[in-house]
Amino acid sequence: MPVRDSKVLTIKGAHMVRDAAIAKAQEFGSAVTVAVVDAGGHLLVLERMEGGRFHTVHTSTAKAVTAASNRRRTGSRGAQGQPLDVIHAVGLSLAAGQGNWTAMEGGVPIFFGAECVGAVGVAGGSWEQDETIARFAVAAIGAKEEASL
Fold this sequence. Notes:
By secondary structure, this protein is α+β, with helices and mostly antiparallel strands. Helix content is 39%, strand content 18%.
């Protein structure tokens, strides 16, 4: 078959992810930026909360793009899931190009069934808060962080 049916994250779905993330960030008292991308890493929604630092716009977007590309949560692991030391993590980030890969926690893919439809990136809290907020947002729309058959 030369084509297949695929699922697509809608703008409404992206807004739902953003809204859930912001609600969770408010519980922490953190001013974060939330980026939601589609399966190809293209930005759908970006919101910086009141008081959020301007650098978090780029950081949250890089986290979302990385999670969509690797189809797994962001962290200090390479494209194949192998552990990376600091030098290799920085090297991979430089090789991938600005905004295309990061080892920082807070990026989570969005799966419906076996299909990755996008990802969310959160930046502005502690790394633990960013990851918790992103994971919460994915679960809040009934999606999973990993493929399920």
